[in-house]
Amino acid sequence: MLSRRVRRGAIALMLAAAAWAARKPGDPLKPGFNLFNKQDDIQIGQENARKVLEQYEVVKNQFVQDYVKRVGERLAAAPEAKASGFTFTFTVLNVNEVNAFALPGGPMFIYTGLLKATDNEAQLAGVMGHEMSHVILRHGTHEATKANAVSLLAGGIGALIGGGKLTQSVLGLGANSVVLKFSRDAETEADALGSHLMASAGYDPVQMAKFFEKLAASGGQGLQILSDHPNPGNREAAIRAEMKTLPARKYGYETGEFARMKKEVAALPAPTKKAAGTAPAPGGAVPPPGSPAAGDWQRYQGQGFTMQYPQGWQVFGDANAADVTLAPRDGVVTQGGGTQIGFGAVIGEYMPQNGRADLKNATVDLIKKLQNDNPAMNVLKGPDAMTLKTGLPALSSTLQSKSVFGGNEVDTLVTVLRQQRLWYVVFIAPEKDQSRVEVSFRAMLDSVTFGQ
Q: Is the pLDDT of residue 111 over 60?
């Protein structure tokens, strides 16, 4: 039997081998390395689809539901979709965000905000074809494999699925969404396969690129689909290059019902439930200035460290996971099946790249990774040297990005080098609340102790 160290090395080699070469237009599109099987995808999708329906309001207008289903089923009739063996379902949710997402195995959910934002039927088909492609290429469980590979081999897939950990990660009930947050390579593949599905259905694939680029040009305000789907580059040029490898077709198919759909959607009543992502700014979540000595704080025991945090906050994520979030309930916003932290603290470890195991270089690497995941993030200050209350040297960096509550947020990153790994905490708060919570964040940092 492989030792844990050998298993980790083998997994790393398999994952690296799958991504070493950039795909060229016309190259085959196949699922990547995956420790789950297709039935696992279906089980994960069905379990999470039930939870989605518990949390979001389904549009009661039958014409709208049938219209979106017709567009989806036309895409699903494409040879590459049929060959996947997955059965796709399409449900319109009464949520005003511009978003859609497909769960592993085939359940797809389309928000009314997306229907309102599209300019033509081909753009809607483009988003749906893109989401369908993530399912066909099994990107969700591929990402889950990368995130949990060692645990999967050590404890088995059943523990991860049966224990509900993937159910939580899909819906963003943990610290991070796993199977709905994709890499730029996955986005490129979904664009390419989505263009195949659109072409087979008679839709102009370029309209997919035009819609995504329209959203990007608008600045992405309130567009969750952009944060979960990072722009892989010049989409239109890439899709046009892919189209040259496809059989010649005449595009321009329309059901003829797009205009009526727009009118029906515009006439829908406001959502009866709080739409995802419309949580109020966390005024009540901001703890009063104080310290753990005040007696109203809790103690969190992590892997090799402890930290005090305010009473009433919750722990999001598994204590054995790579990162964990400490936050009040209304500091965490569920959007499009994923979780966005608007107020709280994210704590984790980072393995420095290329042996850069000194504090400053490792911190710079981590900041670059954060910016790669969130291109809107800017460095306002640092890294600056500081000393923790325990006497350990640390670095502090002040970052800025868009807040889920509107406007900007301030992300204060503190890093400490521990046993060749970078321990870090990011304190997150809306910019307008930063001065009010700075004392509490400092008290949390001062309470940190490390084990041997």
A: yes
Helix (H) or strand (E) holding 436: helix 434-446
Confidence bin at 204 (pLDDT 50/70/90): very high
Is the per-residue pLDDT at 99 higher than 90?
no
Q: Count CB atoms within 10 A of the CB of residue 385.
A: 11
47 is catalytic: no
pTM: 0.56
Answer whether residue 288 shows pLDDT above 80: no
Is 213 buried (19+), middle (13-18) or exposed (0-12) by CB count in 10 A?
A: middle
DSSP for 302-352 reads -SSEEEEEETT-EEES-TTSSEEEEE-GGGEEEETTEEEESSEEEEEEE--
How far apart CA 209 and CA 180 sit, in angstroms, is: 20
**Residues 38, 166, 322, 414, Cα dihedral to 10°:** 120
Residues 208 and 251: their CA atoms lie apart, in Å, by 13
Answer yes or no: is pLDDT of 9 > 70: no
Amino acid at 354: N
CA distance 251 to 274: 39
Most confident of 29-38, 57-66, 245-254, 271-280: 57-66
Task: List, as one string, the DSSP characters of 17-86.
Answer: HHHSS---TT--------SS-HHHHHHHHHHHHHHHHHHSPBP--HHHHHHHHHHHHHHHTSHHHHHT-P
Q: Is pLDDT at 155 greater than 70 in this prediction? A: no
Q: How confident is the model at residue 248 (pLDDT cuts 50, 70, 90)?
A: confident
Q: Minimal CA–CA distance to 20: which of 34, 8, 32?
A: 32
Which of 254, 245, 248, 247 minimizes the C-alpha distance to 207? 254
What is d(CA 236, CA 218) in angstroms, rounded to the nearest whole number?
17
Closest CA to 166 of 371, 358, 318, 3: 318
**Which residues make up the CATH 3.40.1000.10 domain(s) of the chain?**
292-450
Classify residue 233 by burial, with Cβ atoms within 10 Å: 0-12, 13-18, 19+: exposed
Choosing from 131, 143, 187, 409, the catalytic residue is 131
As assigned by CATH, the class of the 292-450 domain is: alpha beta
Task: Give the pLDDT band of residue 452 (cuts 50, 70, 90).
Answer: low
